[in-house]
Amino acid sequence: MPSFLAARALLPTGWAEDVLVESDAAGDIVAVTPGTAAPAARRLAGHVIPGVPNLHSHAFQRAMAGGAERRSPAGQDSFWTWRETMYRFVALFSPEDAEAVAAQLYAELLEHGFTAVAEFHYLHHQPDGTPYTDPAEMAKRHIAAARRAGIGMTMLPALYRHGGIFGKPPHEGQRRFLNDLDGFSRIVQGVRAAAGEDPQVAVGLAPHSLRAVTPDMLRALSGFDGPIHIHAAEQPKEVAECLAATGARPVRWLLDHMPVDARWVLIHATHLDDGEVADLARSGALAGLCPTTEASLGDGIFRLPEFLGAGGRFGIGTDSHVGTAPAFELRQLETSQRLRDHARAVATAEQNPHPGRTLLDAALAGGAQASGRRLGAIAPGMRADLVELDDTHPLLLGRAGDALLDAWVFSGQGNPVRSVVCGGKAVVEAGRHVHAMAIRDAFGVAMRRLLQ
Ligand code: NGQ
Ligand code: ZN
């Protein structure tokens, strides 16, 4: 059985020393024993934290990261012009390209300490909009990429039917995404079969947004006994359109019309009024925050102090993958609050004065909830997902415990992640993914084709 001996590990009870973590053949933790000397175990000499779940990814957008920055001839660039660029780009992907790009992304996520990814997947069909012979072809390519990289996955097939709230005709650029409920359930069935009993793969549902589905469709999905992810209230324009169409803001509409509870993840939830902050927090649903993407797309700043004050829960995702590191997402989240509020140490409490630790704890718990898998803590019954931070790295040197987490999140650009174990398997060694070269070669082939 794989076992690991951590010099220091962050357990649910706090930091502990000489921690033996034993896992079973399926990759679940079976025992955690502090204060042991076990020479037979694989030694992790640094600070070991639970692997961080990434709750929001559109993997194909990794191939666009950094490539959609140019001013367009008309100027006036925005989220909506970025989306036009994305629609042109998404038309180019073959199944092989999608798999190669996703594998590269997932290897990068692992190298930075993400050990699970919730893939919000809507790139279902061929470029002309006809389904592939196997309608779940593209979803299965993403599952294959996750298996190749060795990352855990919650595959979230997305239901996308319309081009605006509620029932507006779709845009040309959306044709690879579109399904009715029957087509969608064929994809979900295919995904379920591909996931099988694999403990590394779970399945959830993703009605894309109030812009892409109808209330009836949402109701049809809302009985699902697992994670339900939906984009909500990312841009002021969609809030205004929802208000005009329904008389309610998007988050208010969801809270009032759907059984929103701990299964639900409202991705972004950027634009909230006071009532929405309080009621979203009370619902037990998560805010799925994607700070580097939200900054990149000019979305706005999440109301973190109010939401945390109301007892709200959140997790983090990398969405368009302009950032691929949990530390950078958490830093961007906190520093955006500081810029707006002229404050510091925003995500802290009297009992927990370290923002690095507070943010990490929230992202672990929220990410686990969003993934519908048993992870996010070094404890028996959880997945054996471990991230070793090299405490001899110049960024972390001389720091320990929660102060080391602050240094990891809030300083420098380097990456002190030394090794990563996912489901009991070592997937990153000496800072590099174990298949980094082969995965990058395939990514290179795909990128040259996509950018030609
Ligand atoms: C997406 N991305 O589905 O990839 C969206 C853009 C939309 C972000 N919202 C498309 N960041 O929301 O209509
Ligand atoms: Zn998204």
Mean pLDDT rating: 98
> Stretches where pLDDT falls below 50 for ≥5 residues?
none
Helix content: 25-40%
% residues in beta strands: 15-25%
What hetero molecules are bound to the protein chains?
N-carbamimidoyl-L-glutamic acid, zinc ion
* Secondary-structure arrangement, i.e. CATH architecture: Alpha-Beta Barrel
CATH class: Alpha Beta
General shape: globular
Using only C-alpha atoms, the radius of gyration works out to: 21 Å
Distance linking N and C termini? 47 Å
Count the DSSP helices. 14
Total domain modules: 1
The strand order across the widest sheet is 3-2-1-4-14-15-16-17
CATH topology: TIM Barrel
**How many DSSP E strands?**
17
Largest β-sheet summary: 8 strands, mixed
Structural class: alpha/beta
Give the name of the CATH superfamily.
Metal-dependent hydrolases
List keywords for this structure.
452 residues, alpha/beta, TIM Barrel, eight-stranded mixed sheet, five-stranded parallel sheet, 14 helices, binds N-carbamimidoyl-L-glutamic acid, binds zinc ion
Report on this model:
The chain is α/β, with parallel strands linked by helices and 452 residues long. It has one domain: TIM Barrel (Alpha-Beta Barrel), CATH 3.20.20.140. The chain has helices at residues 79-90, 95-112, 137-149, 181-195, 215-221, 236-246, 250-257, 274-283, 291-296, 304-309, 326-341, 355-371, 401-410, 436-450; strands at 3-11, 14-23, 29-33, 42-50, 52-57, 114-121, 152-159, 201-203, 206-207, 228-232, 264-268, 286-289, 313-316, 386-389, 417-422, 425-429, 432-433. Strands 3-2-1-4-14-15-16-17 form an eight-stranded mixed beta sheet, with helices on one face. Strands 5, 6, 7, 8 and 9 form a five-stranded parallel beta sheet that branches.
